[in-house]
Protein: Glutamyl-Q tRNA(Asp) synthetase
Amino acid sequence: MYVGRFAPSPTGPLHAGSLVAALASWLDARAHEGRWLVRIEDVDKPRCSPEATHTILAQLHAHGLVPDVPPVLQSERDALYQQALDQLLAAGLAYPCACSRKEIAQVLATQGQGQQRHGELVYPGTCRPENGGLHGREARAWRLHVAACLQRDGLPAGALTHWQDRRLGPQSQRVAEAVGDFVLRRADGLWAYQLAVVVDDAAQGITDVVRGEDLTDNTARQIVLQRALGLPTPRYLHTTLVLGANGEKLSKQNAAEPLPEGGAAQCVANLQAAAVALGLPAVSAASPEAALRQWILPWKMQFG
Structure:
């Protein structure tokens, strides 16, 4: 059975871009006669708030996007994430790391590899077990040993990870080179997004992930992590992005305005704008629910 999800971070109210992702995931679930879940990704506790969670759920409800079961909060699932990390450590597929961001940057600079990748530094492997481990220092974070994961599957350390995106087509990435040994638990004790999302998708039985195109780059490392944990890999569909006036992705970090508030007519207008961004036809409807029903078939014809 198809199970999809919308997984917002409660750092502020929904905006036009997040409504596009919510609408796409809802339509895909309904087009496949499946279930649609909402997961509140509040694992980054300092940036998230219960008020934002309440606002997001109210916004979804006002737009007719009501989950089939009560929403799940990542902040209540620490035990699941710890169990996954323990499993990886026991299998030799994860290790503790003592390096600070400054130290990582310094090592990369000496190697002539100082460029950042999407704001992150590709870890040089200083604390890998085969490189001497922590060198007597205290662990700050825990990382996935990407090469060990690939080699356990009988693949070279620099192997390509392939997947098929339902919209973008064939995709691949050399995770060990492009991403490196990414963090599973941060130095501040918080769980990293990659571990939390992989564990939660499996625990909730997610068969299809529909999300924004900006998250395409996360897919390969999530597949490596899924395989390391013995978890199934869902199908992926990455939707077009809504861009701001500066040409960058519309986001809370990019000062995106919250969705306009109002009654049913305003909610229909918000949904219409999201539908246009997804290449769906304009419809005439007096309520969000009526508009949503009219887009299920066009979506199914495109992505069914």
